[in-house]
Amino acid sequence: MTIVLEKIRRTLRQRSVAVCSAILVALAVVTAIVAPRMMSDPVAEITYSEFARDLGLGKVERVLIEEGGFTVHLSDEEAFVRLPGDLLSASYLDRLASSGVEVDFAKPGIDASGIAGFVVPLVLVVAVLALLAVQTDFNPAARWPRVIRNIPDRFDDVAGQNEPKAELQEVIAFLRDSEAFTKVGARIPRGLLMVGPPGTGKTLIAKALAGEAGVSFLAVSGSDFSAPLIGIAKSRVSKLFQQARKRAPCLIFIDEIDAIGRKRGGGGSAADREFESTLNQLLVEMDGFNTTAGVIVIGATNRVDVLDPALLRPGRFDRQVHIGLPDIAGREAILQVHARKVTLAESVDLSSIAKGTPGFSGADLGNLLNEAAIFAAREGNLAITRENLEAARNKVIMGLERRSLAVTREERRLVAVHEAGHALCACLTPGSDKVHSATIVPHGQALGLVMRLPDHDRHCIPVEKLEADLIVAMGGRAAEEIVFGPKRVTTGAASDIAHATDIARRMVTEWGMSSAIGMVRVSRSNDSFPPEVEREIRRIIEEMYAAAKTCIEHNRGALDTLVEALLERETIDGDEVRRIVSLADERMAA
Ligand code: ADP
Ligand code: ZN
Questions:
Q1: Coil, helix or strand at residue 211
Q2: Would you say the CB of residue 160 lies under 6 angstroms from ligand 1?
Q3: In terms of domains, do 358 and 433 share one?
Q4: Is the Cβ–Cβ distance between 389 and 372 less than 8 Å?
Q5: For residue 446, how far is its CA from the centre of ligand 2 (angstroms)?
Q6: DSSP 3-state of 264
Q7: Does the active-site annotation cover 419?
Q8: Which of 12, 220, 407, 560 is the most buried (most CB within 10 A)?
Q9: Quick check: is 404 in a domain?
Q10: Neighbours of ion ligand 2 (CB under 5 A)
């Protein structure tokens, strides 16, 4: 019943918008047609002969000389005679005057048709603007800011993120009963920032916060404040806070707050001034409402460092809640939340997927399950299988599999050798993460890929692991050199080299892992490091390259078997890689 009522109300409101629009359009059209007529000269035009006749009959009382001719005033009417200016000689005018006709010159005025040409577009523009205003103010669909009441989301819908959730409990309590807090004089935050990468659930958490507290949620985005017309952005800020005060207790959520709150540059352009006045308005509004109002503003951003310091001062956005990428346990929990909405085959193990998705955000994981469901549907599966999930993960990680990419047989062999080199080194170097899979199926920009997975998320990385990473990174090029010779190595190692250089550089300049440089932090000056630092970086990489070569030379049989397996099956999993390597080992021992 209430739904029906709501529907009727909405149609009515939309109807009134439609009526308003129609009237405005009609007005504009009528003005466009009528205005030029009203403005243009209503005086009839007569020929010179007619004028001469009237003059002869003594009917002409007055002539008004204008541009391009003159207006003739007869006793009962007026008429206009067109006459090129150079024919209106002084002697002619004298004769007119002496024959009893009053001769006068028109004031140079605005051309009537010129007025019409100016007024009509103006009227149209005003009409269109009015229409827009009507749309945004009365049309429920386009209403701004978006207000959501009775939010269904709760903290239970947010998987993991236990620390932020705990930090926000106090805010919930305040929104539920702000009086209890103010009575004892507790200081309540007005604004807080949620800081973290995209897709980590900042919006979701803010919504759930409003849901838990049972208050309205006013959602806007920083980009809403980059309006094309001067003054609109600023007035939107006022409107936002005015709405919030009306609906208190409530929560304002400003997504991408950096779009409105970035540092003021003090530039002189109109856009700069507009930006500053908008930001100033935000500051004024933040200062203006007192905490008893029961309004809390949450801003979301990935970068606090770009924000204007004035925004972070006490009483404004003076609290930060960090929302990070989920760890393995968090990823599994998020997968479980999203898995409620899809059907999974029994063989699917979400914890192993969680292990295989380091660096994924909550949004990425939602996307992964969605892609997997699409793969399953395409294959006609009733439930999502492990293979569907694997394919979806690869798709999410690297972009669509480019199986169709034309790779020559020779290139394919080259990629297989390169990847086998990575896989072999990863298998045999102590401290390396376990190989999860190796493939020569192109992914995104990469022609092949060896994926390794940690058993747990790492926060501190030991030297042993860094060196293992370097050996594994060098393994691709080392295998190419050993199998094809130094003259036939390829450009395929470019990203490996970039990655290795990065690690080695940080070992030397940031992590105190070079005895020659010692435990000091070295910075670039003029964009380069001192020569001894560059020497150390080079030495480390060369040593690791030599270690990779030794590893491969001593296990050439295993390398060749891996290459054949890759060429045959394109993708082999970690267990298979380990089996091949240990079998080759045994053969060596025998
Ligand atoms: P952000 O605002 O940080 O960019 P969102 O809140 O828009 O991220 O998250 C996008 C989507 O990702 C959410 O709608 C939700 O489906 C999913 N998601 C992100 N984090 C989580 C989480 N911790 N638990 C459940 N779902 C999550
Ligand atoms: Zn490589």
A1: helix
A2: yes
A3: no
A4: yes
A5: 8
A6: coil
A7: yes
A8: 220
A9: no
A10: 476, 496
Q: Is 401 helix (H, G, I), strand (E, B) or coil?
A: strand
Q: Does 108 lie in the same domain as 171?
A: no
Do 224 and 126 fall into the same domain? no
Q: Which domain holds residue 212?
A: 145-322
State which amino acid sits at residue 329.
Answer: A
**Which CA distances in Å does 423 have to 353, 435, 500, 544?**
21, 7, 16, 15
CA distance 69 to 49: 14
Residue 107's CATH number: 3.30.720.210
Residue 8: its pLDDT value, please?
Answer: 47
Going from the Cα of 188 to the center of ligand 1, the distance in angstroms, rounded, reads: 27
Taking the centre of ligand 1 as the mean of its atom positions, its distance from the CA of residue 444, in whole angstroms, is: 25
Q: What is the structure's pLDDT at 439?
A: 85
Predicted pLDDT of residue 560: 96
**One domain for residues 342 and 299:** no
Per-residue pLDDT at 75: 74
Residue 25 domain-assigned?
yes
Q: Do the domain assignments include residue 403?
A: no
373 by Cβ neighbours in 10 Å (0-12 / 13-18 / 19+) ranks as buried
| pLDDT one-digit tens code per residue, 217-240 | 999 999 888 776 778 888 899 999
Q: For position 343, which CATH number holds?
A: 1.10.8.60
CB 35 within 8 A of CB 120: yes
| CATH number of the domain that residue 224 is part of | 3.40.50.300
Best of 204, 205, 303 to mutate for ligand 1, by most ligand atoms within 8 A of CB? 204
283, 272, 363, 361: which is closest to 325 by C-alpha? 361
Strand order in the sheet with 317-322: 146-148, 216-221, 250-255, 295-301, 191-195, 317-322
Cα separation, 266 vs 168, whole angstroms: 36
Q: How many domains is the chain built from?
A: 4
334 ligand 1 Cβ < 6 A? yes
pLDDT computed for residue 402 by the predictor: 47
Residue ending a domain, among 355, 378, 398, is 398
299 touches ligand 1 (CB under 6 Å): no
pLDDT single digits (tens) 20-33: 555 556 665 655 55
Helical H segments across 289-408, by residue range: 328-339, 350-355, 362-378, 386-398
Extract the residue ranges of the chain whose pLDDT is less than 70: 1-42, 84-88, 108-121, 126-142, 228, 289-292, 358-359, 398-408, 442-445, 588-590
pLDDT at 399: 52
Q: Write down which residue in 338, 373, 398 finishes a domain.
A: 398
Going by alpha carbons, the residue nearest to atom 6 of ligand 1 is 201
Residue 494 Cα to ligand 2 midpoint, Å, equals: 8
> Same domain for 461 and 508?
yes
